[in-house]
Amino acid sequence: MLLRTALATFLASAIALPLAAQDADTVIAKVNDTEITLGHMAAMKLGLPPEMAQIPSAELWDLMLDQMIRQAAMAEQGEATMTPRDEAALTIDRRAYLAGAAIERLADFEPTDEEIQAAYEKAFPADAPVTEYDADHILLQTEEAAKAVIEELKGGADFAKLAEERSVDTASGLNGGDLGWFTRDRMVAEFGDAVAEMEKGSVSSEPVQSQFGWHVIKLNDSRVQEPPALADVREPLIQQIRRDKVEAEIEKITKAAKIERTEGIDPTLLDRDILGQDSN
Asked: Which residues form the signal peptide (predicted)?
């Protein structure tokens, strides 16, 4: 009985050993002298689109391995006829991947509640309230046409009707010139500045020129913009914190690097066939 138990234990261990020994360096296929490893397959799977996760494991394995075998075979052909462009492109691709991987690791952190609160207060400062405006406009191509509209409005003409008939901004014109609620910075500077100086219910006494033409503006209302609740903007703030920290780290690493620029290189050299493509 004791011998039987020992034998069973030995057999179980012997079966498990090959599985335990399989790691990222395990070779699962060879194409001539090119090895395809378990690590290559794992990296490929991590880069697959989410919908491919629905494919059964065995089927996905076969699809991936077949792709890797084809890729290895064609890569050998490409390597045998490497051009200067190929060499340069491979260097750039490797550099881009490594840089992206480093950035991904830098961004892999959770901001503290204090950092999120500070970002919220910076984005929505209590001592600098933002005003929103509700305005309509009629956009004309010439100053003369805009002045004519202003005179008609002074004579009692309906703003919405004139917007529908005359405005070259057909999108708002169909709605009587309605632009909805907006903040000053969302409009071109000339328009935003003019609106900020107007009184509620007033119409611009002079046409306002911008890159789009000549505006006749009617300010319906204004209000102080209520900041969103922290919970509603928490995720965008977290992403912003990550972006800011990554950017700061990139700047720090770049400044610490020894950089030597070769002076006197003619930029127009890039317009020439530096990589010998024309001879291919």
From this structure: 1-21
Which ranges constitute the DSSP H helices of the chain? 2-21, 38-46, 57-80, 84-106, 113-123, 143-154, 159-166, 170-173, 189-196, 230-256
Closest CA to 200 of 188, 214, 182, 218: 218
Distance of alpha carbon 203 from alpha carbon 220, whole angstroms: 9
Fill in the amino acid letter for 75. A
Tokens of 156: 């009692």
Average pLDDT, the chain: 90
- Whether residues 110 and 145 share a domain: the answer is no
H-helix or E-strand spanning residue 218: strand 213-224
Q: Please report how many Cα atoms fall inside a 13 Å half-sphere around the Cα of residue 251, on the Cβ side.
A: 6
β partners of residue 219:
135
38 vs 29: CA distance, rounded Å: 9
Range of the domain at 198: 130-224
In a domain, 267, yes or no: no
pTM of the model: 0.61
| Mean pLDDT calculated for residue range 164-170 | 96
C-beta neighbour count of 225 within 10 angstroms = 13
Count, residues in the chain: 280
Identify the pLDDT of residue 280. Answer: 58
Q: Are residues 244 and 110 in the same domain?
A: yes
Number of structural domains in the chain: 3
Query: Up-side HSE of residue 70: CA atoms within 13 Å toward CB?
Result: 6
CATH of the domain at 146: 3.10.50.40
